[in-house]
Write a structure and sequence with these properties.
10 helices; 3 domains; 283 residues; Endonuclease, Chain A
Length: 283
């Protein structure tokens, strides 16, 4: 197209030069002018094309440099992480999404998105999960370094201690006690003193595992201690809380982990208050 445009321009210039020029000439000056104008147009087109390609190259280089900058920043961030979990995640994720059936790749992408969303929540020092997240509970137990303080109500714990997740949870606590010297305290709260007898087998099993267990009835608490919500929660290392909140039908509906000091410290004080009012020899 560039030579064609140059020829058209040259032709137009040639015709105009003949029409406007002095009569009687052999047309050589007009031809030279037409060739000159056509050449100039052709050169200009090539220059414009070169400039456009140069801009495209510059944009590509800028994008590459930006990608390199993000990759470098990510690499520096990854280096700060403990262990090799993140490199293994990246390596195995790239393998999974390029192999196997479509359903496996779709599931892998969904899990990556879920994990990314969860990490994003952690940047605000809090995360929520519908229902009871037993994996969070067990993983936090394995990560604990000093103490675990738990408040368990009959509303939420009814039937829990005979389930498979409860077995893994208690095993993780037993390992934390024997291998790392973690202090584990569990406070059961019942409505009336006569309900404590039903917890005797559970308390005996947990005490055998090295867990310090107490039971207290709401009727036995001082009036000021009864104020405030009676919710199930676990505080790990006095720095992070795991809370289970039930709806009005007493159905487990939401699990929250929270590392905000302003919200964890009241739970620490709440636990110590209730713990000190419970009878160590009950049940």
């Amino acid at each position: 197209m560039k030579p064609l445009v140059a020829v058209v321009v040259g032709g137009v210039v040639y015709l105009l030069a003949i029409a406007l020029g002095p009569s009687g000439e052999d047309g050589s000056p007009q031809l030279v002018l037409a060739v000159l104008c056509g050449g100039i147009v052709l050169i200009v087109q090539f220059l414009v094309s070169f400039v456009n390609q140069l801009h495209a190259l510059q944009d590509s280089v800028d994008k590459r440099l930006a990608d390199i900058g993000r990759a470098t920043k990510l690499f520096i961030a990854v280096e700060k992480l403990r262990g090799d979990g993140v490199p293994r995640l990246a390596e195995h994720a790239t393998q999974v999404v390029s192999m196997g059936p479509e359903i496996l790749r779709a599931f892998a992408y969904a899990e990556i998105d879920r994990l990314a969303a969860q990490m994003n929540d952690f940047t605000s020092l809090s995360a929520e999960c519908p229902g009871v997240n037993d994996d969070w509970l067990i993983t936090l137990t394995r990560c604990t370094r000093t103490s675990i303080d738990a408040v368990s109500t009959a509303v939420v714990d009814d039937g829990f201690w005979s389930t498979e997740p409860a077995g893994r949870y208690l095993t993780a606590q037993r390992q934390a006690i024997t291998e790392r010297g973690i202090t584990v305290r569990r406070l059961f709260i019942v409505k009336r003193p006569e309900e404590s007898a039903a917890l005797a087998p559970v308390c005996a099993e947990q005490r055998d595992l090295g867990i310090d267990v107490r039971v207290v009835a709401l009727e036995e608490l001082l009036p000021h201690s009864r104020r405030g919500g009676m919710i199930d929660f676990v505080v790990f290392d006095e720095a992070l809380s795991y809370e289970i909140r039930a709806d009005q039908l007493s159905v487990n509906s939401l699990t929250t982990i929270n590392a905000r000091a302003a919200e964890v410290e009241p739970l620490v004080r709440r636990f110590n208050l209730l713990w000190n009012e419970a009878d160590p020899g009950a049940v």
